[in-house]
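Friendly challenge for the regulars: who can give me the structure tokens for this chain first? No prize, just bragging rights.
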Amino acid sequence: MKRLVIATRRSRLALWQAQHIASKLSALHRGLVVDLLPMSTRGDELLDRRLDDAGGKGLFVKELETAMAQGRANLAVHSMKDVPADLPDGFRLAAITAREDPRDAFVSSKYKTLAAMPPGASVGTSSLRRQAQIAERHPALLVRLLRGNVETRLAKLDRGEYDAAVLAVAGLTRLGLPARITAPLAPEDMLPAPGQGALGIECLADDQEVMKLLMTLADVATTDCVRAERAVSRALGGSCSLPLGAYAKLVDDEILLRALVASADGKRVLRCELSGSARDPEGLGNRVAEDLRRQGADSVLGR
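First reply, four minutes later:
Bragging rights claimed.
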């Protein structure tokens, strides 16, 4: 194979991620030309509603999958936190690359931490997961919807429309904006989304030639941890409408997995932490989901 085309969203962060993978592929496979096919997705266009109200995480990937199905692209690069727990028939995650910092970031020019913010101060986020955890620990703060790409969110913050915002450390770092991070939020204070900080590469399930090329980029430790995190999400519904966090890390030959589900107002938060063999990440994720269900997860999630 002499040429690959990567379908990607048009945001600067998505283009950085696609170019990052393109550079790695070109370096590993001499003579391979990798081009980008920038596209707008429904998720990028709907900026006045939460994703859970508009159709969920699939809004960021559907158009890219259509381009692959039509033969206009060979692969797509995604932030793993934006990838639905189950892919459509005919598509497969060929590789999950080494993880960037998975934490969330507190960003503000007015305050040093969430705890330092006065009652009624506003925090911007588009994530129910973040909203619930902020509401649990800081119920006096006003959590408001903040959509758009990273630059758009920062611009709204700089115009004073919000007192603070919570964004992903990985996105700010990849865009060369680590100085905008006022304080990283420890997983103990803000459990990340499943797959946060990792990139996933999707292709057609029956394209063995492309699959073979992409598998060279996979990071085993990251893949095992993300598989465990996504198993929790899959078992509990797999939608971004769930205020759900999950974060796994490899400790020797075992995975330590922490997860939570919460009501959007943060008044009910269920947590679970279990360890299991790295040889069965999904099994560990399913056990964590079962424990959360025993605690009442279905009730918390409004089922």
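The mean pLDDT is 92. Residues 87 and 93 are 8 Å apart (CA to CA). Your move, everyone else.
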